[in-house]
User: Fold these one by one.
Assistant:
Number 1:
Amino acid sequence: MAEAHTVIAIDGPSGAGKGTIARAVATKLGYQYVDTGAMYRAVAWKASLEKVAFDDEAGLSKLTERVIFGFENGRTVIDGDDVTEAIRTPEIDVAAAAVAKLPDVRRALVARQRALGECGGLVMEGRDIGTVVFPNATVKIYLDATADERARRRAADPAHASGKGHDLAFVATALATRDELDRTRAASPLKLAEDADFVDTTGVPVEQVVQRVLTLVHAKLGGSDSE
């Protein structure tokens, strides 16, 4: 049963397991799940479709404010187009990173993301959820893993085209580049919130990570949402 105003923020770099863990936790708790990275990717996809340059901050900001997002059954929809698979490509990886570093675009998307959390019962994952989007989130989790582990996961992920047809070294280099962009951008860089619980997922089975996160959630909620 979702509690009013309860928001679980899950942050971390690419390949740390955010999506897998956040979806599982949301399912266990009966909460809504939102992947904010998919929102940036969808904006980049839409901008490409409409020929809006990735450095056109004003144009991208207007686009971000008017589009309609949908998140049902793990799918990502923008203006009625299901882009779940289309946004998981190397080209969109690069485009999304370019879009995500623009302050006006981030402000527009943060406003949309905060609106999704107004009723609570939300598990939101990304790179700035506990630091910027919901600095007062009920629970803050930061997932991470070694660079080698994250590269292996991305290369083996059937849902992510950036790992298909490329060797591990290529994927590792691409992840390192994205990590550097995320951690050094001026607008909402990726970092560990001071009050977040750090969870290292290296070599840990998914089920164990999910249970660890649920234990942290139940502790913060006083056991009221326990299974």
Number 2:
Amino acid sequence: MKKVVVISTSLRAGSNSQVLAEKFAEGAKSTGNEIEFISLRGKDIKFCMGCLACQKLGACVIKDDVPYIMESVLNADVVCWATPIYYYEMSGQMKTLIDRMNAMYPKDYRFRDVYLLATATEDEEETPQRAETGLTGWIDCYPKSRLAGTLFCGGVTMPRDIEGNGKLQEAYKMGKNV
């Protein structure tokens, strides 16, 4: 049994990336894994100030919801990020959270496998590439971890457009195989 943390970074109710993330979590849970589903919707996540106090203190000086999320990620075996693609890049909320988790850098961590789920209005194969590059930049700072898988569903715009899409079954299978 693995501890799997799924982070849905969309702030939109009924977002396609969250529906995809929920299907991944459902697949992971079906094989007995412990799931923690974190939605950034409603979370207080402030911007990094670049003060680097976290490197000295081991924690960020900003008081918001990031420390709880960071602890969950540090103690997970698997981390799955789900993001809508905006202007061919990960959501701003996802990037802000990644920046704020800078305090993790000198700490020990359990996660080995990291997954990326992405959705977008655009449906070209290259649409999620910049988001993947951004996430691998974060992963590269944790050399015991790796990008274990990605899944992209394009052509979805309005909330819940993804329902009935075959990519949901792919997300379920990906989660089942973590």
Number 3:
Amino acid sequence: MQRPLYITALAAFLFDQVTKIFVVFYLDLKNILFIEVIPPFLNFSMAWNYGINFGLFANESGLQKWVLTAFAILASLAVFIWVKHGVTTKTGLIGAGLLVGGALGNAFDRLIYGAVADFLNMSCCGINNPFAFNFADVEIFIGAFALAIFVTPKNST
């Protein structure tokens, strides 16, 4: 049964969206632009990402919004199909749910705001990280890692 996948995907999507609404709108990061939380380790730094990681392909023509949204939806469907036809553990299903929930969270941002709301900024040890990310990005990374380890294709012999 794939129930852990669905529950985790919904929880990941909701967590991502609630944190974005809280930080970007309730704390008004969209206008303040920077809030020190635990400097320098954790700060909130507003960044509207029109492209993919690190703003790549952010030409703001509008087309990338639809291409990247479609890609996130198709990738989520591919994960559902892969997990359905693969041998997986509960951990693999949870990983799939994290990946799907995070991908759909960022796709939702693109549809609603025209860009992904990134706000987490972490620096350490004298290195000033100029980039921001969000919880959906973390969920996608952890989910992809879990899928690589805990889901395998069914044996065709």
